[in-house]
Amino acid sequence: MHNIDEVKLILETVLLASQEPLSQSELKKLFDEELSNETMRKLLEELRHEWTGRGVELVNVASGWRFQTRPKYQKYLDRLNPEKPPKYSRAVMETLAIIAYKQPVTRGDIEEIRGVVVSTQVIKSLEERGWIDVVGHRDVIGRPALYATTQSFLDDMNLRSLQELPVIEEVGGINEQTELGLQLTAGQA
Description:
Layout: H1 4-17, H2 24-28, H3 37-50, E1 56-61, E2 64-69, H4 74-80, H5 90-102, H6 107-114, H7 120-129, E3 132-137, E4 145-149, H8 151-156, H9 168-171, H10 174-180
Helix pairs in contact: 1-3, 5-7, 5-10
């Protein structure tokens, strides 16, 4: 049996080395002996606290736990990698916001809310980014695809669930929401 300090060091090592978030159940597989969910959660919270005030932080996102750079230090990383991340058009961001808040939605639903036609390229760019996916088809003539956000969307937005999205009324509507709450470029994700 590992002592608690060693368990935390193992968790820290694995999380720092991992390129993807790791769920509690994945982390529990690291140990021969059974750790309760409560013990694992407590150790992860202690580890998060130990990293307070550092350049990186331990966060819990939709698909698990990960270390990430604190946002206020991102500009320094950008200096090492001056490559500009892709910027998304207003149409892409509005479409993403509508899908995030109204999911599952069809392309027709999005067009009705936006008041303009949604181009295939807008949907394709969100699918390629891994932020939306087809989750079914509406049971009407033509069986249009239903779109919803993915776990990658939640991870990239640093959310554990859709309930953590900012409330639309707080920022004045869905168009402003795309600029205030969901404006994110791939380099920040």
